[in-house]
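hey m, so remember when u said the tokens were messed up on ur end? i reran from scratch. heres the input so u can diff it against urs
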Amino acid sequence: MSRRAVLWIAFAVVHVAVAGLGFLLPNEPMGDVYRVYEPWSQQALEGGGIVGITEAWVYPQLALVPMVLAHGFAPIAGYTVGWAILVTLMDAVAFGILVGRARSTGRVSAAWFWLAFIALVGPVGLYRLDGFTVPLAIIACLWLVGRPWMASMLLAAATWIKVWPAALLVAAVIAVRRRAAIIGGVLIVSVFIVLAVVAAGGGAYLFGFVTEQTSRGLQVEAPVATPWLWGALLQVPGFEVQYSLDLLTFQVEGPAVDQAIAVMTPLLVVVMLGVAAVGAVKAWQGAGFAALFPVLSLALVLGFIVCNKVGSPQYLVWLVPSLVVGLVVRRATWSAPATVALGAALLTQFVYPLLYGGILHPEPVAVTILTVRNLVLIALFAWMVVRLVRLPVPARRRADVTATA
């Protein structure tokens, strides 16, 4: 049996198993699908209000598209299974482009890494919008050099579904030489969406997803929430975990939490600008795409996670596209970060859904595992920043820069 056939068999087994686990594991890992995705999309299909058009929404407007598409598979076994089928089909397209004829060792390694990640992070990676955007991002990242227009348009569309691929776009603008194509593709998609939203009467809510996010508290799984979570575990007066009816998430409360909330968004902006600036310097000094893009994009994505007030478990899948590209172009260099990411994925599945009750009503084992997971993410972020700063510059370009300084 060819290794290509083995990969596709593994693809099918992993997706069926993970989809099935969504119905078997505790704490409803596919709950968002039938609790919010289905009602939002059903309302739009039935001529009711359209989220993002007739009311403010926590997601960009294009996020409604996959929610509606999942209804096409709902007759098979209901909307939740339809969603799993839709995401699996998207993964299959990206997997086919990644693997090709399975002749490249780097591509095969990246494919095995992705399958392992899907299995280790569990159902939350499949039953969330993020699971739909990851294959789009993988395809786009693989096409950045050869098909920059298509790549940037895919990344722009993914960003209008869930904001996180914007980090990949920033890295692409810096690392890809054909920057005009990257920027042009983004503009085409964004202008089209903006005009469509305004024409539909949703101009007042065009950027509602930005204001909805900036007003959020500290979600219990976010790295920044760790001190308050431990305070709740140790039953320190004033520290607790509460449920937000407005945002349908669990958040921490306690002394100085409002100050932390106020600081996190500016901190996130500063960190992202700082990482992008270092990447821009490296690009100016002559660092090529294969060396620069994976580390820069992963550092930006990790910064987006580590410095975020929100820390949903599905955010872990954001690491996949950068690591896939890294393994494709330089497998030996990226094997260690990929292994660390797999460990973080496994810890995340323990946090949610397996031990989530011990987070909401803090218990030592669950809180410790979440803390270790967050420390791993912080360490991986620091590692990527250091690797970016130390990224070698081609000797000829370095000499040119020194001569003109």
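this time it looks ok to me. The chain has 19 helices and two strands. if urs says something different then somethings off w ur setup not the seq
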